[in-house]
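Morning - fe (ii) ion inputs below, output right after.
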Amino acid sequence: MSATDTLREDHKQIRRLEKIIIKCYTELYNGTNIPFTDIDKITIIIEEFLDSIHYSREEDSYFPCVASYDHLKQEIKGFMIEHEFSRRIAIQIKKYLKQWKDGIDSREPVARYLKTYSVYLMDHMNKEEAFFDKAESEVLSKEEELDMFEQFRSVMTISKKKDDMIKEIENLENLPWMK
Ligand SMILES: [Fe+2]
Ligand SMILES: [Fe+2]
């Protein structure tokens, strides 16, 4: 495995989450009763898997390594801005979910921000995957790929957390409203 493959593998899991989010907002718009705890789980996966694991692999290791070649800098800048944008959408989802729990019907904004998040995810990951192909073939050396891969793996708490998060994704996929 290489660092680039690890990020591609993260994306595969994130695409599973994307499907859950699409189904969730569609059902919310349909008036289906979805337990708050299920939506909470989505926001936890966003925070713990996307934010603290996947983005940090990209922002702290992968992007700086590619940028050190003075290559693809514009793309990287764009991805960083999009990460910030996604963090702001996640805050909105949580804000309206809390409001809803507190008794103010916030079905519409929760559904709307979930939808915004899924649109972001699709667009961002498609662009990044094209970027991974370029970074892999144009700049990164085998050694760098391996070093970063080892770095990703060596953070044991992260590997454990990622496994937990994938389990959470699986649990969500098996909920009645997902069928
Ligand atoms: Fe990203
Ligand atoms: Fe990514």
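Note: The longest helix spans residues 36-67.

O.
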